[in-house]
Input
Amino acid sequence: MYSNKTVLVTGGTGSFGTTIAQHLLARDVREVRVLSRDEAKQHQMRVEQADPRLQFYIGDVRDERSVDLVTAGADLVFHAAALKQVPSCEFFPIEAVMTNIIGSRNVLESAIKHGVQSVVCLSTDKAVMPINAMGMTKALMEKVAHASARSLNSETVVSTVRYGNVLYSRGSVIPLFVDKIFRGESLTVTDPEMTRFLLPLAQAVDLVEFAFFNADRGDTFIRKAPAASVGDLAAAVNELFGNPVEVRTIGVRHGEKLYETLATTEELQSAEDMGDYWRLRMDTRGLNYESYFDVGAGESREHLDDYHSHNTERLSVQGVIDLLLGLPEMRQALETWNSRS
Output
């Protein structure tokens, strides 16, 4: 799949982007292009990875010109550029619209125009029944991807992946907890009963790669994942470091849910269970109003529960500890902590 291919990663200096770039460079790719706005992170990545096949482009997915420049000649596209922080998107929703929706449209239109073979767009559990601006814009990004997938004048395969919280990604709760422990500060949780899907970054890469190898037009792939309560997550981190600080409950932040959903009962009606993954098929019916008013689906629906973080496999505190110990970043943090003792 990757042999002698040029691969574009938008948002390529983020946690996912840097990991997928490293993953690709270990394969027989011709070139990996990184598009992002942050020249400091690009410099850091250039020094750390030090591979002549890695090419950097300063630009923004909001800008059609910069997207066109980097997409021309690419074979595959990982579209990871996004505004992802729930609170910041709540306060600046138009910025989320410009990046997550308009920016995604620019990437998809450019990919189709330049004959890219396959585009995988990264979405989130927050896009399902969204209550915050981040989730709403990601949900619309998925609709834009479906609209592009329906294009009759394109051979480009457009697909989407959804996943929950990526462990130890930049700005996520685990590195925040670790930093607080190192500073001797209490761990703050919004609601200890709140649950979240937990996914190691390596499995997020596997999910995107699975989409590249298996996607039909308009498919959405979901990685099945365990979940844990926020309270158990804090307890697990505390136990790993020897119970060093207190845990305080501070109340729910702007736009937070008690639990997150990766697939609705409506989506699961036509989903394909692929073992570790769900494949959600795009509705391929056209805009023929007879289908909506007189015909319908022609079959009754099976009763299925939504697939969410309250009804998936629930990890105990020990289960979370075992998962965290599989992360190289956590092992490094523990090594540093123990060397201070």
